[in-house]
Amino acid sequence: MQTFQITVDSNVLEKAKHFFNSGLNDILNELLQNARRAKASCIWIRTYIEDGMRFCSIMDDGEGIFKEDVRIALGGSDWDSEIQESENPAGCGLFSLANRGCQIEANGKRVNITSEAFTGKIPVAIEETEFSNGTRIDFVLNAEESESLEETVNKATKYYSLPVYFERTRIKRRDFLEAALFIKEWSGLRIGVVEETYCWHDGEINFHGLTVEQNFSHILLSKAREIYRVKYLTTRIEVIDCPELKLVLPARKEVVQNEFLAQLQVECERTIYEYIRKLYAHRLPYQSWEKAKTLGVDLPEAEPKLYTWVPDCLDNYSGCNGELVDVNDRCLLVDVTDETYDLADYHVFAHAWNRSGNGILLEPDPDYAGYSWYNALTKIVDFSVIVQLRDEKEPLERCMRSTKFQRPDDIRIIYFTLKGNADKEPLANKLSTDIAFISELDDGIWGGIEDVTLLITKDSETNTETLNRLLMNVYFQTSDCTDEFGYDTQREMFSSEINQLINSVLHDEDYANRQKIAELAQKVLAWETPYGKTTQITIKPGGNIDVTFID
Q: Out of the domains of life, which is the source (predicted)?
């Protein structure tokens, strides 16, 4: 059987210039990693000008790059077996300078390597030098890099393990896991649980100062309206000594997708749940609670808390929001999904329920379906409104545009409940109320307050202010605002129309019109009356107006 062996083509060295993007950040990261592996205790970075060009000089006090002889080989390195095993160095770091060239001093020797020399096409002269303690590498900066050098150095050394001086000033280092809520060591890594924020841009893995992006599991801890933004927990990883965690060579900007990374993903998720177990309570969705079990972390059930049910408002600025409350035996879920209902139906039901004192209505949240306390809740699954005038009974929709039923004797709501998993069929319940209203829609759109039919029982004690608020929540929607008709002005005008509708039902049309005129006079004309005078205004048919002042 014929065989062959994979080899490295000689042209690879010429293509080494393309292994890195030759950016300043890449160069700094590679040289800093080399200094650390060379057992340096400190790094100094400075700039100087020579022959009209600005140079960056990076010096360390490590073992030096030329230990025995001067040798630079693509893919080869003199790192000891411990470094080779734990970090898998690529032997390509110096080639981040291949596009610009550099000068290197180490172990009493100095070499100037041009960009062409990095391709192996020409030999490099070796000079003797007195520099013998560590390694010094100098390279040219362009104008843009000169201006941003300090910022780039700060970024590259932010989580670096060794002290770094820039132009004689020591750079302040940060703890990569300083924001961690919980830290656990596992397989040569430090796994930190952090709250996710949108301002995090440094990557999820700190490989000895080099930060790498990796998408780890995000677990929802609480919802946006509980804390004004969504709160997630995720993890950040700091490498101590983990040979199994491999970075893609040579640039090391991403993690190799291997079996260990899959195990790490699982361990990160488990660590988050271990942190949650230490909390006093949690609000995890049921599926997350179940997932924690499969990872060997037993958690108590989520706190029995849900939001109170509040019908939506047509106006987005009305603030129709519920509040988070403890679930108890007096709570019921409003789980009505019939699409034939409109906002008016829900507000009529909510008003009736609030008068009854029968308990607390809660908004369903599928995230918590499965918890024992959630499954045990009684659900309201349907309702209908019946209007009664003496011996006549009609469903609410039959009373549309009817003046006959404007002041009925009784308005009754029949609502249907399912208690946990105990009831197989919905149970009918009765609820009395004093108000109902319905609007005539045209393809789901209503024309105005004149299309609303308002019913108020004869013995209703609900005041005009409450009625007005109910109708505003259902029917008011702002249009494009102008200088003349801003949001507040539009609400005020619509509120006036609602009051006229209410007065026409509670009293009669003449009374409603008188109140409307009085309201307009109060807003516009009252301030025009001379001091100490009474103004009498007579408006005659045809628009003739007579104004008389009375002392």
A: Bacteria
